[in-house]
Amino acid sequence: MTETAPAAFRSALEGYQPYTDENTVNWKEANDNAGRIGGWREYAKEASQPESGARPGPGAVPAKP
């Protein structure tokens, strides 16, 4: 029989970081800023742009009729 070393114990809580509140922006300021940069249309335009360095997959190009 071959003996193997016992598995190393690793706690599930290793690296645990307790919850901390994050500093957030006032919702009114965030809403006003979104309006200044173009609102939802600007976000939609940004989302429709391909990511830099990423090549579109085969489903990204519409099929010809």
Describe the protein.
It is built from two helices and no strands. It is an all-alpha fold and 65 residues long. The longest helix has 10 residues, at 27-36. The chain is flat and about 70 Å long.
Structure summary:
With 65 residues, the chain is mainly alpha-helical.
User: Are there runs of 5+ residues with pLDDT below 50, and where?
Assistant: none
Net shape: flat
Helical run tally: 2
Q: Describe the oligomeric state of these chains in a short phrase.
A: single chain
Strand pairing plus helix content: what structural class?
Answer: mainly alpha
Q: Main sheet?
A: none
Strand content bin: under 5%
Provide the residue-averaged pLDDT: 82
Let me know the number of strands.
Answer: 0
Order of helices and strands: HH
What is the CA-based Rg, rounded? 25 Å
Helix content: 25-40%
Q: Whole-Å distance between the termini?
A: 67 Å
Architecture blueprint of SSEs:
Blueprint lengths: L26 H10 L2 H10 L17
Give the tags.
65 residues
